[in-house]
């Protein structure tokens, strides 16, 4: 994790933890077991858990927020007094192996690459055409990519998360040791953000990992990258699709999006792909060199992009042939939004479907006879 501004969500988090050691998993399971020991084990909230305001670590955090950022410690204490460790958050971030079977590209992608998601996306594009065009003009990111990200994140704003953000972030910051420093930073950023927005931190809902609004930005991302794109003088990623659109485009732009640059190509490989896969998702070899090492790409693209840095991407589905793709810099940029090849490829393929469908719609409407009116 290179920065405190990374964007995460449940899918990515699941992937991050696949390499988590067995011992750590056992410890965590024990911890969750303790939290879940009440008869309300499967309720969203363990009402027997002490309020967070009683935790010395949280008290220390509150004092630190007062010292460094001038927060009112008494008010923060009251806010932390109303929240408790949420076992559902801990289960979601690190599901026991028995609950989460091996990750499968096919199963993952089916959630996003389907007719309803495409049709809703075309409507979203149509409805927010002006903001999307403006975002492309300013940030160089094509509309279909912005629409696809919002579509994968929240079904175009339909599912923005039901967890209390303060409770979720505090649960992870103080109850999930493997990533406590990350979530403590996000908790700090969240409190600053809520104060800047003039809202109570208790008013925010989001994902179990504290991602907020139509584009599911983590609080640090909102503070660093979000823009007021509808011109009402405030950033509101929860209610303003235009603010979400501008903010997604700016996020990708600031992470190095190359306007007009390639994103990904389907690939074939010989049997020695492991070394190329091991180089990671960040493009590090010119495509030409990849082809010399046994990667197969569509001929016309391969020639045109021979000097372009590329990475080999493998999309694994247990019991089925692995899908290979060549990812370019823009593919890598999408993984900055959510550090998962499954995620970035779903965004790319949904975007391609959206673009093709939009082109078809345009062509068929141009082909119609002029109306009588
Ligand atoms: Ca706004």
Helix content: 40-55%
| Distance separating the two termini | 59 Å
CATH architecture of the domain at 21-93 and 162-206: Orthogonal Bundle
Strand order of the largest sheet: 4-6-7-3-5
Structural class: alpha+beta
Enter the CATH topology name of the domain at 21-93 and 162-206: Helicase, Ruva Protein, domain 3
Radius of gyration: 22 Å
Can you count the beta strands?
7
Number of helices: 18
Question: CATH superfamily of the domain at 21-93 and 162-206, please?
Answer: Bacterial muramidase
CATH class of the domain at 21-93 and 162-206: Mainly Alpha
Residues in β-strands, percent: 5-15%
| Ligands | calcium ion
**Outline type:** globular
Low-confidence stretches: 1-44
- One letter per element, helices H and strands E, the order comes to HHHHHHHHHEHHEHHEHEHEHEEHH
Describe the main β-sheet briefly. 5 strands, antiparallel
Tell me, rounded to a whole number, the average pLDDT. Answer: 88
Structure, described:
- With about 375 residues, the chain is an alpha+beta fold.
- The chain has a domain at about 20-95 and about 160-205: Bacterial muramidase (Helicase, Ruva Protein, domain 3), CATH 1.10.8.350.
- About 55% of the residues lie in helices and about 5% in strands.
- It contains 18 helices and 7 strands.
- The strands form 2 sheets. Strands 4-6-7-3-5 form a 5-stranded antiparallel sheet. The chain has a two-stranded antiparallel sheet with strand order 1-2.
- Strand 6 (about 310-315) and strand 7 (about 325) form a beta hairpin.
- Helix 9 crosses helix 18.
- It is globular.
- Calcium ion (CA) binds near residues 230, 232 and 234.
């Amino acid at each position: 994790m290179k920065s405190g501004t990374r964007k995460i969500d449940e899918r990515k988090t699941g992937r991050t933890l696949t390499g988590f050691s067995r011992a750590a998993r056992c410890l965590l399971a024990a911890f969750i077991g303790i939290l879940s020991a009440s008869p309300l084990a499967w309720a969203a909230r363990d009402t027997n858990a002490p309020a967070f305001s009683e935790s010395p670590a949280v008290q220390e955090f509150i004092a630190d927020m007062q010292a460094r950022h001038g927060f009112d410690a008494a008010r923060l204490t009251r806010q932390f007094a109303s929240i408790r460790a949420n076992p559902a958050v801990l289960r979601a971030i690190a599901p026991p192996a028995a609950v989460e079977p091996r990750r499968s590209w096919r199963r993952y992608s089916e959630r996003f690459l389907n007719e309803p998601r495409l049709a809703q996306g075309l409507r979203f594009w149509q409805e927010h055409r002006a903001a999307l065009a403006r975002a492309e003009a300013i940030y160089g990111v094509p509309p279909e990519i912005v629409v696809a990200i919002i579509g994968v994140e929240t079904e175009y704003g339909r599912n923005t998360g039901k967890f209390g953000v303060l409770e979720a972030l505090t649960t992870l910051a103080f109850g999930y040791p493997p990533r406590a420093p990350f979530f403590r930073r996000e908790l700090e950023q969240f409190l600053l953000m809520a104060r800047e927005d003039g809202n109570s931190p208790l008013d925010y809902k989001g994902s179990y990992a504290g991602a907020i609004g139509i584009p599911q930005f983590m609080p640090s991302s909102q503070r660093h990258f979000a823009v007021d794109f509808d011109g009402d003088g405030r950033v509101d990623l929860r209610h303003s699709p235009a603010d979400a659109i501008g903010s997604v485009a700016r996020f990708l732009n600031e992470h190095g999006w190359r306007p007009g640059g390639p994103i990904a190509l389907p690939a074939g490989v010989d049997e020695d792909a492991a070394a190329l896969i091991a180089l990671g998702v960040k493009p590090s070899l010119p495509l030409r060199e990849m082809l010399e090492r046994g990667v197969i790409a569509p001929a016309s693209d391969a020639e045109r992009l021979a000097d372009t840095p590329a990475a080999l991407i493998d999309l694994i589905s247990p019991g089925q042939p692995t899908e290979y793709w060549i990812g370019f810099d823009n593919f890598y940029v999408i993984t900055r939004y959510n550090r998962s090849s499954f995620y970035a490829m779903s965004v790319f393929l949904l975007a391609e479907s959206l673009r093709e469908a939009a082109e078809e719609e345009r062509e068929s409407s141009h082909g119609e006879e002029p109306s009588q009116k």
